[in-house]
Design a protein that fits this description.
Pfam families: AraC_binding_2, HTH_18. GO terms for molecular function: DNA-binding transcription factor activity; sequence-specific DNA binding. This is Helix-turn-helix domain-containing protein. InterPro entries: AraC-bd_2, AraC_XylS_family_regulators, Homeodomain-like_sf, HTH_AraC, HTH_AraC-typ_CS, Tscrpt_reg_AraC-type_HTH. This protein is an alpha+beta fold. It has two domains: 195 residues, Jelly Rolls, CATH 2.60.120.10; 95 residues, Arc Repressor Mutant, subunit A, CATH 1.10.10. A seven-stranded antiparallel sheet has the order 1-3-4-11-6-9-12, with helices on both faces. It has a five-stranded antiparallel sheet with strand order 2-5-10-7-8. A hairpin with a 2-residue loop joins strand 3 and strand 4. The chain is globular and about 50 Å long.
């Protein structure tokens, strides 16, 4: 399995920043009135969980209804305010985040976030199925603020801040356990906030699922990536593999297809890939049939791959 590494990008052009955010995180409508706008992002992916430290001058961003409905994969994003302040609005919640405070927002629901001055945040993106809360509780946590000044929130905030200062620590073999700990701690903090008890979940089972996801990501372009091959790699039966994914509310083949679509989507909005044909990008990620790929991409994102690229890169024709 390939080791995770931290990558860093410094950007002073707003258009380029929008493209970078769309490629690494999510498509967002980003605006600023700062003529000297500057931003930096440090990123690492560990077992399907994406972590970023983001620093930027004054700006504001919006996940519009159109953008929120266009993605195939539902993510939660933990955001810890490290420096400066911001306001977050989602699901009827509107809160001010000060250093140490954190929140969770839902990629499938519109939200707004405003940074009125220089700021730095940690953002942790992960599939929604990894938060072990009842569906009704999941719907209620989006946009909710947890104070980092007291109670369990202070413990979780300190842990997340430590991760932000040491992203390279996730490059080693302990990265899996640390990523799982983040999810468990955040789940506990929101459970306390809402006055509920999160269902018990086996840590070894969670780590096994995360390891399986990571190995799939490492072999995503492989045309021989099948449930049988994945199960054999992890010394479990194919039936056990299907059960693990069913517990996450999906299937092995669906999860692989969604990951492949997401990788093509990222490359479609990457200016460095602009000269590559859509067919080439699709084939690179396991879609040899161009017609089939175009159909399932439109089902997932609402527009054809060509239109998606044109809208993101501002090209025509």
């Amino acid at each position: 399995m390939a080791a995770a590494t931290v990558s860093s990008v410094d950007i002073s052009d707003l258009t380029e920043w929008r493209r970078t955010v769309a490629s690494l995180l999510l498509p967002l409508d980003i605006q600023t009135d700062d003529e000297n706008f500057h931003a930096r992002i440090d990123a690492i992916t560990v077992n399907g969980i994406r972590l970023f430290t983001v620093s930027a001058t004054r700006h504001w961003l919006e996940r519009t209804a159109r953008l929120a409905s266009s993605g195939a994969d539902p993510f939660f994003s933990i955001s810890l305010q490290l420096e400066g302040s911001s306001t977050i609005s989602q699901h009827g919640h509107r809160d001010l985040l000060l250093p140490g405070d954190f929140t969770v927002y839902d990629s499938t629901v519109p939200y707004e976030r405003r940074f009125e001055a220089d700021s730095t945040s940690l953002v942790v993106m992960f599939p929604q199925q990894l938060i072990n809360l009842p569906p009704k509780a999941l719907a209620g946590i989006a946009g909710m603020r947890i104070s980092g000044a007291e109670g369990l929130g202070a413990i979780v905030s300190a842990f997340l801040a430590g991760v932000a200062r040491n992203l390279t620590a996730l490059e080693g073999r302990l990265g899996l356990s640390m990523a799982a700990s983040m999810v468990d701690l955040v789940t506990a903090a929101f459970s306390e906030k809402m006055g509920i008890v999160a269902p018990n979940r086996s840590r070894p089972r969670l780590e096994q699922m995360m390891a399986i996801r990571e190995s799939i990501m490492a072999r995503l372009p492989d045309p021989d990536l099948t449930p049988d091959a994945i199960a054999a790699e992890h010394f479990i039966s194919t039936r056990q593999l299907h059960i693990l994914f069913r517990e996450q509310g999906t299937t092995v083949s669906t999860w692989i297809r969604e990951r492949r679509l997401e990788m093509v989507r990222r490359e479609l909005v990457d200016p460095l890939q602009e000269t590559e044909s859509i067919r080439t990008l699709a084939e690179r990620w396991g879609f040899p049939d161009a017609t089939h790929f175009s159909r399932i991409f439109k089902e997932a994102y609402g527009v054809t791959p060509r239109r998606y690229r044109q809208d993101a890169l501002g090209t025509a024709g």
